[in-house]
Amino acid sequence: MLSSPIVLVLASVAFASKPSDSHAWQAPTAGQVRSPCPGLNTLANHGYIPRSGKGITITEIMDGAVAGFNVGNTSILQAAKFGLLSGLAFDTLDLDALALHNLVEHDASISRQDWALGDNLHFNETLFSVMANINPGSDFYTPETAAQVQKMRLDDSIARNPNVTNTDKEFQLRSRESSLYLSIFGNTSTGVAPKEFVNIFFREERLPIEEGWKRSEILITPDTMNDMEDFIVANSNWTQSQACEPLVIGPHSVI
Ligand code: HEM
Ligand SMILES: *[C@@H]1O[C@H](CO)[C@@H](O)[C@H](O)[C@H]1NC(C)=O
Ligand SMILES: *[C@@H]1O[C@H](CO)[C@@H](O)[C@H](O)[C@H]1NC(C)=O
Ligand SMILES: *[C@@H]1O[C@H](CO)[C@@H](O)[C@H](O)[C@H]1NC(C)=O
Ligand SMILES: *[C@@H]1O[C@H](CO)[C@@H](O)[C@H](O)[C@H]1NC(C)=O
Ligand SMILES: *[C@@H]1O[C@H](CO)[C@@H](O)[C@H](O)[C@H]1NC(C)=O
What we know:
Helix content: 40-55%
Shape: globular
Strand content: under 5%
CATH topology: Chloroperoxidase
Structural class: mainly alpha
Bound molecules: protoporphyrin IX containing FE, 2-acetamido-2-deoxy-beta-D-glucopyranose
Distance between the termini: 58 Å
Radius of gyration: 19 Å
Order of helices and strands: HHEHHEHEHHEHH
CATH superfamily: Chloroperoxidase-like
Number of domains: 1
CATH architecture: Orthogonal Bundle
């Protein structure tokens, strides 16, 4: 049986096609895990990082982010390194473990509930509707709408969550996350991004290729995001709820 030439040809075709993932979107199947991060989940749903969501290395995340989004390593390296602390493995992480509260996961998210209020892992349309309904009549999200959404989502958390954590750390993460979705799905210098693309990213954790999105030709780095991130920081009327210690997260001359 095994020596039949037809079986051998089929076997070698199957073997040859296995290493090159087609990067088609595929919802996670039973046993595959996902995170509170729409970015990592989208990369996994397209096979730019392991579709299992388990045992992922920092290098796989860095390579996947460039291949899928053209997001450069310095934009996400700190978050990825923090992510390792979500589990016991020395140099890999599982996506679902990233729901660990106050490691990278934070309150006042765009699309996930605060940890103290409920499910902080899965997409929540009720919360996301704040962003989806911002600036009606326009087809675009902008750094200005991103700042408004950050303010509205934080106001809601402060009103409803007596345990809200809102320090400079969370604010920096949230402003970086906003800059990432604006840059990936919009113009990397103006941060003007079609709502349709961003909504598909959040709701389906899918790259909106059929809808006309193209991967940025420009590598998305802290430098390219600098202006829009500064704008968001300056225009979200943010004040801290608690102080945190000064954050030492890398050699600042580099990142
Ligand atoms: C690959 C590029 C990435 C993109 C485009 C991206 C994008 C985003 C966005 C837009 C959010 C906000 C979700 C919301 O507020 O509802 C988010 C949240 C999150 N990201 Fe990512 N991210 C990326 C990489 C990473 C990395 C490397 C890690 C760590 C290993 C990470 C961990 C998280 C976590 C834990 C959250 C949840 C925070 C929360 O809302 O509570 N992300 N990300
Ligand atoms: C990170 O990206 C930069 C370009 O932005 C590149 O020069 C560098 O080699 C990358 N680092 C690693 C470890 O791949
Ligand atoms: C907030 O945390 C305190 C203790 O840290 C706890 O007693 C209380 O139940 C928490 N409240 C909520 C809404 O989770
Ligand atoms: C979504 O979030 C809202 C507001 O916190 C909450 O009332 C609702 O139960 C959540 N929905 C799901 C499906 O968890
Ligand atoms: C911030 O405050 C200013 C002045 O009160 C106001 O004009 C602006 O709309 C506020 N921005 C947000 C995002 O709430
Ligand atoms: C981004 O916007 C700038 C300023 O409006 C424009 O010059 C540039 O061509 C746009 N880039 C892309 C890729 O559309």
